[in-house]
Specification:
heterodimer; A: 115 residues; mainly beta; globular; B: 115 residues; 7-stranded mixed beta sheet; 0% helix
C-alpha cells in the first residue's frame, strides 16, 4: 500500500518569504501526484497535479512542484508567499493507471503567513 | 456549473445511532468518492462509486456503507455510531471516472459530531 509523508506540520512565514513544503511517498510503482489546498472555511481544492512529462509542474496562484522520482518526492514551492496563502496544504498520490478516485493523502501542512 | 454539494453540513448524533449523509456531484460527473478527515488520521479514503457500483473501498469497518443512485447522487451511512466517528466527511466527484487523469472536485463536507 502507498503512503505519503509531509514533514512539516506547521510552517510560519512572513510575507514575501519563499516557501517549500516537503512531500515524500512510498509506493513500488509509478504514481500520479497532487497538491491540494484548503483555505480557512473553504473546500479542498486542487492546486496542481503531475501525471507525466515535465517533472516541474505549475499550478494556480504561482505555486509549482517538482517531481523527483529518485527521491520519491513532490515538493511544493512558491517564491514569494502572501498573507492569502494561509491555508492547509495536502499532498496526495494514487497509483498510475488506476482511477484517481482513491487517493492517499498526507497529514497536511498548515501554513501561516504573517502580514 | 454548481459545485459538489453535501447535506447536511453539520450533524450531532449520540453513540449507537445511525446517520446518513448525502452528496450531489457536479452535473455530469459519474464518480463519487468519500473521505473521512480527522485531526489525528488526516484524510482517509472510504469508498468510491461509479455508475451505481462500488468500485473501490478503503479500510473501514462494515458499519460504513454507501450507495449511488442513477442520477449519480450518493449517500453514505454509518451505523452504530462510535465517538471515534466524529469527523468531517468529504465527498469528491469526477467526470467520467474512467480516466486516471480526472480531477477530483471536493464538496464542503459534513461535520459529524458523536456524543
Amino acid at each position: 500500500a502507498q503512503s505519503v509523508s509531509q514533514h512539516n506540520h506547521h510552517v510560519i512565514l512572513s510575507e514575501a518569504a519563499s516557501l517549500e513544503l516537503g512531500c515524500n511517498y512510498s509506493y513500488g510503482g509509478t504514481v500520479n501526484l497532487f497538491w491540494y489546498v484548503q483555505y480557512p472555511g473553504q473546500h479542498l481544492q486542487l492546486l496542481l497535479k503531475y501525471f507525466s512529462g515535465d517533472p516541474l509542474v505549475k499550478g494556480i496562484k504561482g505555486f509549482e512542484a517538482e517531481f523527483i522520482k529518485s527521491k520519491f518526492s513532490f515538493n511544493l514551492r512558491k517564491p514569494s508567499v502572501q498573507w492569502s496563502d494561509t491555508a492547509e496544504y495536502f499532498c496526495a498520490v494514487n497509483p498510475k493507471n488506476t482511477n484517481a478516485g482513491k487517493s492517499t493523502f498526507g497529514d497536511g501542512t498548515t501554513l501561516t503567513v504573517k502580514p | 456549473k454548481a459545485g459538489v454539494t453535501q447535506t447536511p453540513r453539520y450533524l450531532i448524533k449520540t453513540r449507537g445511532q445511525q446517520v446518513t449523509l448525502s452528496c450531489s456531484p457536479i452535473s455530469g460527473h459519474r464518480s463519487v468518492s468519500w473521505y473521512q478527515q480527522t485531526p489525528g488520521q488526516g484524510l482517509q479514503f472510504l469508498f468510491e462509486y461509479f455508475s451505481e457500483t462500488q468500485r473501490n473501498k478503503g479500510n473501514f469497518p462494515g458499519r460504513f456503507s454507501g450507495r449511488q443512485f442513477s442520477n449519480s447522487r450518493s449517500e453514505m451511512n454509518v451505523s452504530t455510531l462510535e465517538l471515534g466517528d466524529s469527523a468531517l466527511y468529504l465527498c469528491a466527484s469526477r467526470a467520467q471516472g474512467l480516466d486516471y487523469t480526472d480531477t477530483q472536485y471536493f464538496g464542503p463536507g459534513t461535520r459529524l459530531t458523536v456524543l
